Amino acid sequence: FNSDYTYHCADLVNWRPKSKADLIHSMEVFYYDKNPVGLIKHVTDNWLNPGGRLIMGIDYYTENKVSESWSEDCGISIMTRLSEAEWIDSFRRAGLTNVQSWREGAKEGWAGTLVVTGVN
Questions:
Q1: Which of 17, 24, 44, 47 gives 20 to 30 Å between its CA and that of 92?
Q2: Please, what is the angle between helix 84-93 and helix 36-46, to 10°?
Q3: 68/28 Cα distance (integer angstroms)
Q4: What is the gyration radius of the CA atoms in the chain, in angstroms?
Q5: What residues are paired with 117 via a beta bridge?
Q6: Per residue in 90-107, pLDDT tens?
Q7: Which three-class secondary structure state does DSSP give residue 52?
Q8: Residue ranges of the alpha helices (H) in the chain?
């Protein structure tokens, strides 16, 4: 156990860190909120330093057809499935600039992990 790290268990929509960060990476998180655009804005405003970068990776998005049934398959009622364009727009609406996206690991039957990034 490394005591240099602190772990928090909190509602992401309301939680604010004591200090902001230059880099925030999220993997498979934002679509578990009813209002992912609001959560991205909250993270951008309250967690990220000016000039800091937010990077998101997700597999649950419209163009990844195999993920279409995941909410039902997993029994999770709160999963917001947006298109790649909607995720990009969400980053821009949160005030992020230099927004870029790409798909990592795409292959037949798998659209790849959607990566979206932007600068505060």
A1: 17
A2: 40
A3: 15
A4: 15
A5: 55, 100
A6: 999 999 999 999 999 999
A7: strand
A8: 36-46, 70-74, 84-93
Residue 2 confidence (pLDDT): 62
pLDDT of residue 24: 97
Closest CA to 116 of 88, 85, 79, 82: 88
* Type of residue found at 35: N
Do residues 116 and 91 lie in contact, with contact meaning Cβ atoms separated by under 8 Å?
yes
Both tokens of residue 97? 């600039």
Residue 54 has which token pair? 């937010």
Helix (H, G, I), strand (E, B) or coil at 114: strand
Q: Give the pLDDT band (50/70/90) at residue 4.
A: confident
